[in-house]
């Protein structure tokens, strides 16, 4: 019996080690947009996002991005993984007399560098133009409306909309020239959370020469993360003096060792209990 259980456990462990087969596609439930503007309205903006199941490692070739990514972390070797996380930040704040210019100076994702293979942004190698999501509603065809979802979702809400693809931004170059990343940061929150959650932060250098600012009505090219960690909804934040937070899909660590331990401990426990019972029987027989 013991040999049978051990063999069954070995087979189960082997099955866990085999990657699950899946078709490469945009993942249902992890595409859409989040409008953030609280607690600081000056950081009002939209975070568009989509997560691609990259089981066959086809993401770059499928969307014509081979050779059109600028690496921020991991180099070209890091541009692979089970999942590809794609984001676009849009500054939707319109100027008014009291605040003639409201800018976004930081974009945070609540995740850890330890679960990321690579980080990059899309930039065409020939003309330097960026890339945007393509969606069936045509919402991405003008500079003033770069939302993947609908126009009427309320602050902080998540609107689902699956992109039909990725295309070069032919409308006009985005109001940015480069993007930088800080891989070791803390997620901004009010009131402050202790201990602070891990985060990575993106900064923008814009075409008007203003460092680290995404101006009114401006939008970024696609920001891309490669990871083997499954998506979960967690913090996304835009900042201009203070954070405006919402939920977006991010890579979440899911150590395989925990799953193996979870399966192995009951088997080990069964074996230990069996040995204890046998020893008890022997001891009673000897009395």
Describe what this molecule looks like in 3D.
- This protein is an alpha+beta fold.
- It folds into 2 domains: 1-22 and 255-287; 31-254, no CATH class.
- The protein is built from 3 helices and 15 strands.
- The chain has helices at residues 2-17, 59-62, 256-286; strands at residues 25-26, 32-36, 45-53, 69-73, 83-90, 106-109, 116-122, 131-134, 158-160, 165-168, 178-186, 198-205, 223-227, 231-239, 243-251.
- The longest helix has 31 residues, at 256-286.
- Mean pLDDT is 77; it is low at 8-21 and 256-276.
Shape descriptor reads globular
Structural class, please?
alpha+beta
Helix content: 10-25%
Arithmetic mean of pLDDT: 77
The multimeric state of the shown protein is single chain
Our Rg estimate from Cα atoms comes to: 24 Å
Quickly count the helices: 3
Layout of helices and strands, plus pairs?
Layout: H1 2-17, E1 25-26, E2 32-36, E3 45-53, H2 59-62, E4 69-73, E5 83-90, E6 106-109, E7 116-122, E8 131-134, E9 158-160, E10 165-168, E11 178-186, E12 198-205, E13 223-227, E14 231-239, E15 243-251, H3 256-286
Antiparallel strand pairs: 1-3, 2-3, 2-9, 3-5, 4-7, 5-13, 6-12, 6-14, 7-13, 8-10, 11-12, 14-15
Helix pairs in contact: 1-3
């Amino acid at each position: 019996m013991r040999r049978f259980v051990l063999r069954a456990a070995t087979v189960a462990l082997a099955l866990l080690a085999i990657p699950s087969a899946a078709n490469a596609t945009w993942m249902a439930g992890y595409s859409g947009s989040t409008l953030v503007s609280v607690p600081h309205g000056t950081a009002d903006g939209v975070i568009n996002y989509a997560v691609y199941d990259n089981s066959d490692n086809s993401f770059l070739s499928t969307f014509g991005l081979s050779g059109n990514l600028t690496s921020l972390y991991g180099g070209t070797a890091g541009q692979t993984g089970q999942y590809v996380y794609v984001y676009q930040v849009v500054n939707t704040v319109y100027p008014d007399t009291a605040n003639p210019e409201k800018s976004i100076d930081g974009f945070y994702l609540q995740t850890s560098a330890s679960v990321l293979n690579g980080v990059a942004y899309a930039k065409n190698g020939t003309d330097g133009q960026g890339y945007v999501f393509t969606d069936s509603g045509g919402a991405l065809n003008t500079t003033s409306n770069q939302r993947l979802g609908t126009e009427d979702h309320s602050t902080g809400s998540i609107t689902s909309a699956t992109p039909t693809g990725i295309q070069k931004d032919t409308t006009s170059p985005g109001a940015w020239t480069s993007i930088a990343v800080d891989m070791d940061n803390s997620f901004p929150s009010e009131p402050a959370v202790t201990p602070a959650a891990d985060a990575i932060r993106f900064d923008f250098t814009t075409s008007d020469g203003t460092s680290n600012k995404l101006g009114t009505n401006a939008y970024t090219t696609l920001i891309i993360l490669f990871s083997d960690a499954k998506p979960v909804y967690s913090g996304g934040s835009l900042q201009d003096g203070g954070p405006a937070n919402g939920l977006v899909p991010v890579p979440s660590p899911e150590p395989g060792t925990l799953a193996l331990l979870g399966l192995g401990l009951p088997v080990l426990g069964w074996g230990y209990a069996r040995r204890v019972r046998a020893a008890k029987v022997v001891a009673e027989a000897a009395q």
